[in-house]
What we know:
Elements: H1 9-19, H2 35-46, H3 52-87, H4 93-96, H5 100-147, H6 150-155, H7 158-201, H8 203-250, H9 252-257, H10 261-313, H11 319-337, H12 339-361, E1 382-389, E2 398-405, E3 410-414, H13 421-428, E4 436-441, E5 444-445, H14 451-457, E6 458-461, H15 472-477, H16 485-494, H17 498-502, H18 521-535, E7 539-543, H19 551-565, E8 569-573, E9 585-590, E10 593-598, H20 600-606, H21 609-623
Parallel strand pairs: 3-8, 3-9, 6-7, 7-8
Antiparallel strand pairs: 1-2, 1-4, 4-5, 9-10
Amino acid sequence: MLIVGVCKGEGVAAVQKERGGMTDVHSPAKGRDGGLSIIRKLAPFLWPSDKQWVRRRVVLALLALLLSKIVAVGTPFLYKAAVDVLAGEDVDPVWALGIGAVGITVAYGMARLLTIGFQQLRDVLFAAVGQRALRQIALETFNHVHALSLRYHITRKTGGLSRIIERGVKGVEFLLRFLLFSIAPLVVELAMIAAVLAVVFDIWYLVAVVVTIFVYVWFTFRVTEWRVTIRREMNEQDTDANQKAIDSLLNFETVKYFGAEEREANRYDGAMERYVFAALKTSYSLAFLNFGQAFLISGGLVVVMIMAAVGVADGTLTVGDFVMVNAYMIQITMPLNFLGTVYREIRQSLVDMGEMFDLLAHPAEVQDKPGAPDLAVAGGQITFQDVQFGYQEGHLILKGVTLEVPAGRTVAIVGPSGSGKSTIGRLLFRFYDTSDGALLIDGQDIRDVTQKSLHAAIGVVPQDTVLFNDTIYYNIAYGRPEASRAEIVEAARAAKIHDFISGLPDGYDTTVGERGLKLSGGEKQRVGIARTILKNPPILLLDEATSALDTETESEIQHELQAMGEGRTVITIAHRLSTIAHADRIVVLENGQIVEEGTHDALIARNGRYASLWHRQAAEDDAA
């Protein structure tokens, strides 16, 4: 499962410029939660208090597990009885069952079948529980990532984040399967076999088996802990290589513009070289672990079988006893052979889940107050009251901005790069909360209402409309998913893009490609406008919505934006002044403060900062 998010390029650049640098707010925590802590976090998904069917399935799965182990531990007795009957030994009537060697063999086969049957029943019963837990954790992580602040998403690395989520979810699946159905059953089975060896045979058999298991487990855990460190290094290199690959592919056009294919390939190959080096260390250490395990198991098996052989030779044990001891040793060694792999994967799963739970523990910077009401929009009046804000402590971007946007009016905000224009838009949408002062809509502080209702009331047309890699119909319908096809077509007509769509071979079912790259800038922008028209919000935020377009396309779209703004409260953030001359009021922002405001004509007549910007741009246009 790969989750890839793309931030608006212009937004990243603008925020970085306004911040004067930024810190990485999502760096992984150095200290991870312990294994028991992670398992405790996982427990509610397996034993939910409000889902009785889940708890019943868990209990039945554990019961099936216990039955399978009881049958498995009892099966070698049938094997012993069959061998003794065939060897002519005196057989206890209880085990002979009065059915002869063939009948005992059939019973042995049935016991083996029952063991497998109970194991499969256990898997069937638990499958729905495990998949439900997996789905819930994945959904919770996905929702949490969307709830994190814009600050987080601007600074994160998409490839690394997707890898953390992917490995974490897979870790949950592995942990559920192996911790419950490998480690726990192994412990139960070893305890039962140890009891049988002590009671039926001799205490020394138990001692030999316990010593073998103890040394084996000690060796396995020590070596595996060492290998986990190597595996973590391999994961880090894997994450780095994946991040570089995704970053390069997302910037495909830039790579082409600068002829940097070889440079990008070298970066990726360098990351893969480090990954391969770590992967080879993992493979070599695995070979050492496997050989060491085989040596210890073989040694223990030989010791126990020698003891049984001596017992048969001196008449204290039967041939069936020898075979039964061998069967028990095989039952012990087979799961133990996987212990190293299972333990390593469980440890790695805990590491991967720890990274994912660290992500879940990352607090959302902007949160609703408990019991916050929905925003009630009457007219859509927007008020900034002495707003101060900085992306970093001690470095203010907005320095006491006071501004009122009357309901149903259009106010344009202009100014040089880094003056805080885009920051005003982000504060209005509540990507961030103000450091000081307040931002009101119809007299309601936006910090006191739900974010969902606030976002529903505001329609945004950004400079670069980013589309989903889906159909044009889906992208327009994103503004209001429940809208009818007729409403979607009407929104496309209003955005002057219906005729273009109708001329495509697949019409509205045309796929737009990654981020809408199959469409031109103007076409993408019109789809974005149609999407916002369909949303039909009372407040519009136009964040340099035409500055990336050519003059002819800009002029066409400008008329559509003006038509869309009729009857709505509109804040237009603009760099090109010719696009906002019609605004009811123009606000000039400089160094985080309002230095001028008024109508276009009044500001030109004042011959101040706005007039200077206007004449400069006019001269540049004439020169062009």
